[in-house]
Amino acid sequence: xxxxxxxxxxxxxxxxxxxxxxxxxxxxxxxxxxxxxxxxxxxxxxxxxxxxxxxxxxxxxxxxxxxxxxxxxxxxxxxxxxxxxxxxxxxxxxxxxxxxxxxxxxxxxxxxxxxxxxxxxxxxxxxxxxxxxxxxxxxxxxxxxxxxxxxxxxxxxxxxxxxxxxxxxxxxxxxxxxxxxx
Length: 182
Fold this sequence. Notes:
Layout: H1 2-7, E1 12-15, E2 18-28, E3 55-60, E4 64-70, E5 78-88, H2 90-97, H3 102-105, H4 109-116, E6 132-135, E7 143-146, E8 160-163, H5 175-178
Antiparallel strand pairs: 1-2, 1-6, 2-5, 2-8, 3-4, 4-5, 7-8
Helix pairs in contact: 2-4
């Protein structure tokens, strides 16, 4: 699952032909307390315990949809898509988000889901069908790693990954992390 989070950097994620290059991810698994799967299967997190290659979509604080890709070495593992560099369907993203600055369209998990039109209806959908596509990267990009953000439990785990030098991250990596390939 940590390897999947790193491997997703540089791939292209599209929903109904709208999306871009994945530039930031975070890894979660069932045996750590920040994961939605930590307390076992529930109706809300059922997709996390299903087959790999599916989407786990949930509402954050009742406000924003967030999207994960289920996968890894154990049930209950998923990778949160934190940010994209928009490349395809930028006009649609701008309308959905009500702004034009490409750096702000998908620079956070809630922003990303809103820009791509992702809602809970996509929960459990396969990554390779139903209007969703994940296109492999052509080369191995420089990836940086650091602690996850926006959580209080197990926040020190270095399971946040980003495309080195990207202007589209949700937040910069700490200076001591930015030059260290993952």
